Fold this protein.
Amino acid sequence: MFGELLGAWVASAWVALGRPDEFLLVECGPGRGTMMADMLRTLRSVAPDCMKAADVRLVETSDRLTAKQALTLGRFDLPIRRVRRIEELERRPMIVIANELFDAVAIRQYVFDGSEWRERCVSATDSGRFEFILCELRPQVGQAAKAMGLVEPKAGAVLEISPARERIAATLAERLATDGGAGLFIDYGHARSGYGDTLQAMHGHAFADPLDRPGESDITSHVDFDRIAAPFYAAGLFVSPTVTQSEFLLSLGLIERAGALGADQDERTREDITRAVQRLAGTAHNEMGQIFKVLCAASQPMALPPFGLNEADLPGAAVERTAD
């Protein structure tokens, strides 16, 4: 259902962009290619003209995953090409989708010790184990926090900044502003900047110490959508509010699609579909529908979601910013 709804969104974005005869359909960080396959299957069914105009590009650094993507997407008779970097994409209008891209990009952490900001670094003990330590003073971090509209920190406050994420956003912003198109970005994080230590690791589907088993765990952190949105604003693009995944998917018709899928199914299958909807759009504190956020940037005004949802959540709204 998730990939199908995103496929329908791509078709609507293509129409809103004036139905370009040729455009790049780009996914950044496509994993095994499953979501792209779902989107293409939907386009083939409901928007064949859009699919005919699309040249599919996968931005992927991993050779291992590229091989899996080729197997997943090989059944589609389309010009599908892999590039390693966004800068390698042709200069053409594009619709870019990035689901769980920014959370995998490195961050820097700064800790307020009560009077000064210090960078959190990694050191090795005499036994060879890694540990966090506080190292160099970073007085400029206080100025950055004020520029972000944050309240005065308390001792122990942690500020996370990701220059690498912001460079990716700036690169995408330049391409969209110059060549035209739209970008849809889905990730778990917070809509507004704030303090907090969100670094975490997963190993074997369980939480793990980020410094344990280096290279074997999935290390992530929450995305600050305020910081991601800033380069798109700076490029003069039309930028949506940051909304929850639940709001976004429900506005696209998740409930209606689930009902259609379950209409002719048995009770057990309908229960499975209901659980899938809950998993995607549940709004409890720890559910994907609430934790994951959605942002869109486009070279021209667009009427489709997430535009028009929760305008009060636009960055720059008159609110006191604290930890999310």
Summary: The radius of gyration is 21 Å.
